DNA sequence: GCGACAG
DNA sequence: ATCTTGTCGC
């Protein structure tokens, strides 16, 4: 079923307003909190898939048991994308759909694992920060690319990490989740620390480069998009 | 001005 | 993100 996503208060219509919203909301990011202990409670992966031709966006939220990585609950939401993809403004394209999917969960999401950045962002307010602030949940960002940031290559061993930097500032970490495979780029979203975020990511990657939470959410939102496209 | 640029 | 064949490896 295709729905119309409710937009959060003050939702911007232009890029300039969107950047202003980021500048304003970033003061609400809570840093320094330890956050949930890796391997305990629940962890929720969120991801979004698109069908640009039909202007469809599908979001998925998959709750995993943090210890066993078994799926506890899943939810999806499909609707129209209300914002184009603009580097640095990804959240405005994905947040309404993700919030709709999260509202469909009965289980406590625990930690939110987002596909993209948190503090590793031009204005230090990436998708993971945005979702964290709007939901109040602890959140982290796990991206597949370093974006505009730089990092020294971490050693080839799983678990090795190197700082992801913007000038002299460490905005995240390049973390090797599989030996000899390109690292993932982890950053803090809300209510947790970079060390804890990296520990969570390692706990979520026993076998593949990307967190199980992300892989499950990715597969689910693609499926939801297929079903919606087929019946539209 | 031009290129780069999370998903 | 998405478009796409074959291919190497566990």
TrEMBL record:
UniProt-listed InterPro entries: Endonuclease-V (IPR007581)
UniProt function note: DNA repair enzyme involved in the repair of deaminated bases. Selectively cleaves double-stranded DNA at the second phosphodiester bond 3' to a deoxyinosine leaving behind the intact lesion on the nicked DNA.
A GO MF term: endonuclease activity
Catalytic activity: Endonucleolytic cleavage at apurinic or apyrimidinic sites to products with a 5'-phosphate
Family: Belongs to the endonuclease V family.
Keyword terms, alphabetized: Cytoplasm, DNA damage, DNA repair, Endonuclease, Hydrolase, Magnesium, Metal-binding, Nuclease
PANTHER family, alphabetized: ENDONUCLEASE V (PTHR28511:SF1)
Binding site for Mg(2+): 47, 115
E.C. number(s) listed in UniProt: 3.1.21.7
Site feature Interaction with target DNA, where: 85
Organism of provenance: Streptomyces physcomitrii
Cofactor(s) in the UniProt record: Mg(2+)
Name of the coding gene: nfi
Keyword match Hydrolase: yes
Pfam families, A to Z: Endonuclease_5 (PF04493)
Name of the protein this chain belongs to: Endonuclease V
Superkingdom of origin: Bacteria
Gene3D superfamilies tied to this protein: archaeoglobus fulgidus dsm 4304 superfamily (3.30.2170.10)
CDD domains, alphabetized: Endonuclease_V (cd06559)
Compartments it resides in: Cytoplasm
């Amino acid at each position: 079923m295709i729905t119309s996503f409710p937009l959060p208060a003050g939702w911007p219509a232009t890029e300039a307003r969107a950047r202003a919203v980021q500048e304003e909301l970033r003061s609400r990011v809570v840093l320094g909190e330890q956050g949930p202990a890796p391997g305990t409670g629940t962890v929720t992966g969120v991801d979004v898939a698109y069908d640009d031709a039909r202007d469809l966006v599908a979001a998925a939220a998959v709750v995993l048991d943090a210890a066993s990585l078994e799926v506890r609950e899943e939810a999806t939401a499909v609707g129209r994308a209300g914002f184009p993809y603009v580097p640095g403004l990804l959240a405005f394209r994905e947040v309404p759909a993700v919030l709709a999917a999260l509202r469909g969960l009965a289980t406590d999401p625990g930690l939110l694992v987002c596909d993209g950045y948190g503090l590793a962002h031009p204005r230090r307010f990436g998708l993971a920060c945005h979702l964290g602030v709007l939901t109040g949940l602890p959140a982290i960002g796990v991206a597949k690319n370093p974006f505009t940031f730089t990092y020294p290559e971490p050693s080839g061993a799983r678990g090795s990490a190197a700082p992801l930097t913007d000038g002299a500032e460490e905005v995240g970490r390049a973390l090797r989740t599989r030996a000899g495979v390109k690292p993932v780029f982890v950053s803090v979203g809300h209510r947790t620390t970079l060390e804890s975020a990296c520990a969570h990511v390692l706990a979520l990657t026993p076998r593949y480069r990307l967190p199980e939470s992300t892989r499950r959410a990715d597969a689910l939102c693609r499926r939801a998009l297929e079903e919606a496209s087929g019946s539209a």
